[in-house]
């Protein structure tokens, strides 16, 4: 529900207050997407009304653009053409996910066997999987049954379904985290996006997650309406506040490798881990890319020389 | 160019084939002996690059289709399975997704090259029209392809774009329902889009063959716009054009691979990594970048014009922006082809380029504040270029003096005096230029 409210208020360079936009678009040409959608569920209807009110109010003043603050650009080991994973960091990030985020967020696309990529041995992965219980079946008697997970199982979700997840979280279902590092990006705007094609900036996702996780506890600008049950966070892309309470606190997770347990460190580690979860072949991709680029460069040089030779006696 | 064939089978087997199905002869005449103007620049390599991109799209697409499920409950996960579990699946998918974008990069350069050098003028009208048909087919294919991953932008983009058709009175709703296979974007829509997305590239390939056929009948234009007159104006396709096109392709692939391997999601929208949800409208629905100028024109019409309401007006303007290209050969009244010899047209050409980019930028902006007004100005200019500037300019502009022939333009004025082969080329090589 907060999500929809947020959507209706959303701004930022890439996003516009949907209420306004939909009116305009409805007039202009496209059918109002809202009208085309099947009837929203009850909770969404309520939030919709709230959203419209808020949007109407907003219309009077400056349109707010979200997020209120842009995420800082951090240095990630997986950035750039020679990006690589820091396996220690991924393991720490996994620990943060497992001990904190997994209470609310699912990660359906990732299987236990994938964790071997973090440097765990096959036996370790078996042991990790064995700590989880999954539902299987039906068995010969037609009954579903519970059993310990095996490496080929995917991470079980904390809630039975999105409705249950939303009900337990003030109406906003915590999104699945498997792809979140690719599903969020604060628009870069001109001319930054042009420079990005040269610098290969592709880390908007982890930058966003880190900023969000460390962005709580600030004072909202005067006049900001914070709905009950939501938490102000100037980095949230969908509005002034979100339903997720600050998930991290210092020393909440004990690292085995002695890395200090600060909120910033947790946020970095879990963001890296989520980048891996969203794009497990990222490093392989860049490494392949290097060989391909090298090959093409050499090939281009050779073709160029042949071309020069062919045209040498032909003015053109 | 059509005309007599210079193919000579080199052995008995080829003679035997040639007498029964002269396919080797066709290939030889089209891609070996085919004469091309000697003065073609790299802007002319984009035809070859486009063929390459079509090939890449078809090959990667066929492999992706082996792993993809065209069912609304499975589609999103099947794409993720390709990304995670299929061997080299991530490469196939990123090549295909970015390949679509680079296909459009190439086609836009190709089209603007045609505009600059007047490639649409007689006798190449049909060649040009076939090109516009290919462009339309590409747009339909790309749009349907973007729906297949069944993310948020897939779903809502499909909803918005099929919604355009409801703007037409009477026939609008039935057309939309036919496209959707129902009353809203759903599994039936996905199924038919997948089917058509697989079909259309082969239709493109078919029209490309016609396009190339027409090209080989009229011959290529060239930067002077002067038709080929003698043997001195041309060089054989192989090795000259083959190697030059080859170099163009490899350099183009370098740019393409930069995106495929290092920034594969730069041209996509993050929302498409969220599974489609009919209950949740994204805050801002934007099409893929290559549709943005047209999207801006669609939204530029915010007022009713007589019986035409703003919605229908926008749709007509958007379709009209491409339809007008079909008439271009007759809208441009100038007898001079190339912008090189049309000093005023050359300025308007670049203004059009800027206007199109400007519209593209506006297409990515929300339809609020000053933006719709700017879009309207950009749209008016866009149409004025075709409907006012081109017809009038051809009548009032004084073109620069054309060279007598391509060879003269390349080899210098002395060439025309008849001492063709002996005339020293302007710079560099001391040996005779042509007949080594």
Please provide a written account of the structure:
The complex is a heterodimer of chains A (316) and B (436). In chain A, the strands form 2 sheets. Chain A has a two-stranded antiparallel ribbon. In chain A, strands 3-4 form a two-stranded antiparallel ribbon. Chain A has 12 helices and 4 strands. Chain A is mainly alpha-helical and 316 residues long. In chain A, helix 1 packs parallel to helix 4. Chain B has a two-stranded antiparallel sheet with strand order 1-2. Chain B contains 16 helices and 2 strands. The two termini of chain B are 24 Å apart. Chain B has helices spanning 12-20, 23-31, 46-67, 75-84, 89-116, 125-147, 152-163, 172-180, 187-218, 237-262, 292-300, 310-326, 328-331, 343-363, 371-396, 406-411, and strands at residues 35-37, 234-236. Chain B is globular, with a radius of gyration of 24 Å. In chain B, helix 3 (46-67) crosses helix 10 (237-262) and helix 11 crosses helix 12 (310-326). The chains are: A mainly alpha (316), B mainly alpha (436). At the A-B interface, helix 1, helix 2, helix 3 and helix 12 of A face helix 4, helix 5, helix 7, helix 10 and helix 11 of B.
Determine the strand fraction of chain A and express it as a percent band: under 5%
Radius of gyration of chain A: 24 Å
Order of helices and strands of chain B: HHEHHHHHHHEHHHHHHH
In the CATH hierarchy, the third-tier topology of the domain at 87-110 and 154-280 in chain A is known as Cytochrome Bc1 Complex, Chain D, domain 2
Mean pLDDT score of chain A, rounded?
84
CATH class of the domain at 87-110 and 154-280 in chain A: Mainly Alpha
Structural category of chain B is mainly alpha
Instruction: Find the CATH superfamily of the largest domain in chain B.
Output: Cytochrome Bc1 Complex, Chain C
User: How many helices of chain A does DSSP assign?
Assistant: 12
Distance between the termini of chain B: 24 Å
Number of strands of chain A: 4
The pLDDT mean of chain B sits at 93
Characterize the biggest β-sheet of chain B: 2 strands, antiparallel
Strand-pairing-aware structural class of chain A: mainly alpha
Which fold name is given in CATH as the topology of the largest domain in chain B?
Cytochrome Bc1 Complex, Chain C
SSE ordering of chain A? HHHHHHEEHHHHEEHH
Which residue ranges of chain B are poorly predicted, with pLDDT under 50 across at least 5 consecutive positions?
Answer: 417-436
């Amino acid at each position: 529900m907060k999500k929809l409210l947020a959507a209706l208020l959303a701004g930022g360079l890439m996003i516009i207050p949907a209420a306004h936009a939909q009116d305009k678009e409805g007039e202009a040409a496209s059918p109002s997407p809202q009208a085309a959608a099947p009837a929203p569920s009850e909770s969404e209807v309520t939030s919709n009304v709230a959203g419209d009110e808020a949007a109407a109010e907003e219309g009077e003043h400056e349109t707010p653009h979200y997020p209120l603050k842009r995420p800082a650009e951090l240095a990630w080991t997986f950035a750039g053409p020679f990006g690589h994973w820091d396996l220690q960091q991924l393991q720490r990030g996994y620990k943060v996910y497992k001990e904190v985020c997994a209470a609310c967020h699912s990660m359906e696309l990732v299987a236990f066997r994938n964790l071997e990529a973090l440097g765990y041995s096959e036996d370790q992965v078996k042991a990790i999987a064995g700590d989880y219980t999954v539902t299987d079946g039906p068995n010969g008697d037609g009954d579903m049954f519970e059993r310990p997970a095996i490496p080929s199982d995917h991470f079980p979700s904390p809630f039975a379904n999105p409705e249950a997840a939303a009900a337990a979280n003030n109406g906003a279902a915590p999104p699945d985290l498997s792809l979140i590092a690719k599903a969020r990006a604060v628009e870069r705007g001109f001319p930054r996006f042009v420079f990005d094609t040269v610098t290969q900036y592709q880390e908007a996702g982890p930058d966003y997650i880190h900023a969000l996780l460390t962005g709580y506890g600030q004072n909202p600008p005067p006049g900001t309406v914070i709905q009950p049950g939501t938490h102000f966070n100037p980095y949230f892309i969908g509005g002034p506040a979100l339903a997720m309470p600050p998930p991290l606190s210092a020393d909440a997770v004990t690292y085995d490798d002695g890395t200090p347990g600060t909120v910033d460190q947790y946020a970095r580690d879990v963001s890296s881990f989520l980048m891996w979860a969203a794009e497990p072949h990222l490093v392989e991709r860049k490494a392949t890319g290097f060989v391909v680029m090298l090959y093409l460069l050499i090939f281009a040089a050779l073709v160029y020389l042949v071309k020069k030779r062919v045209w040498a006696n032909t003015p053109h | 160019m059509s005309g007599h064939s210079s193919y000579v089978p080199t052995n008995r087997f080829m003679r035997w084939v040639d007498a029964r199905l002269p396919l080797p002869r066709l290939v030889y005449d089209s891609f070996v002996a085919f004469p091309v103007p000697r003065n073609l620049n790299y802007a002319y390599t984009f035809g070859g690059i486009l063929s390459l991109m079509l090939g890449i799209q078809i090959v990667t697409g066929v492999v992706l289709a082996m792993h993809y499920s065209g069912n609304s409950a499975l589609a999103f996960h099947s794409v993720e399975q390709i990304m995670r579990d299929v061997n080299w699946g991530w490469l196939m998918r990123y090549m295909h997704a970015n390949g679509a974008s680079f296909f459009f990069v190439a086609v836009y350069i190709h089209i603007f090259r045609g505009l600059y050098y007047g490639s649409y003028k007689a006798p190449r009208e049909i060649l040009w029209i076939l090109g516009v048909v290919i462009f339309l087919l590409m747009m339909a294919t790309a749009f349907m392809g973007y729906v297949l991953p069944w993310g948020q932008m897939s779903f809502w983009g499909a909803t918005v774009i099929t919604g355009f058709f409801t703007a037409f009175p009477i026939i609008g709703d039935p057309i939309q329902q036919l496209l959707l296979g129902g009353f809203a974007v759903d599994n039936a829509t996905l199924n038919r889009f997948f089917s058509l997305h697989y079909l259309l590239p082969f239709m493109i390939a078919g029209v490309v063959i016609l396009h190339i056929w027409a090209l080989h009948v009229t011959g290529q234009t060239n930067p002077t716009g002067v038709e080929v007159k003698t043997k001195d104006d041309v060089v054989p396709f192989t090795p000259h054009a083959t190697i030059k096109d080859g170099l163009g392709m490899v350099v183009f692939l370098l740019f393409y691979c930069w995106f495929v391997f290092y920034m594969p999601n730069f041209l996509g929208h993050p929302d498409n990594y969220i599974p489609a949800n009919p209950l949740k409208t994204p805050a801002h629905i934007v099409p893929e970048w290559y549709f943005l100028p047209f999207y801006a024109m669609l939204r530029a019409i915010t007022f009713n014009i007589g019986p035409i309401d703003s919605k229908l007006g926008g749709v007509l303007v958007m379709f009209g922006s491409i339809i007008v290209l079909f008439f271009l050969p007759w809208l441009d009244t100038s007898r001079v082809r190339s912008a090189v010899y049309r000093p005023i047209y050359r300025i308007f050409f670049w203004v059009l380029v800027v206007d199109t980019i400007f519209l593209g930028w506006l297409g990515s902006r929300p339809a609020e504040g000053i933006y719709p007004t700017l879009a309207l100005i950009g749209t008016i200019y866009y149409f004025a270029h075709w409907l006012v500037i081109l017809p009038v300019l051809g009548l009032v502009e004084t073109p620069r003096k054309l060279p007598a022939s391509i060879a003269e333009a390349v080899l210098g004025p002395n060439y025309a005096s008849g001492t063709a082969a002996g005339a020293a080329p302007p710079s560099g090589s001391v040996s005779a230029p042509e007949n080594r």
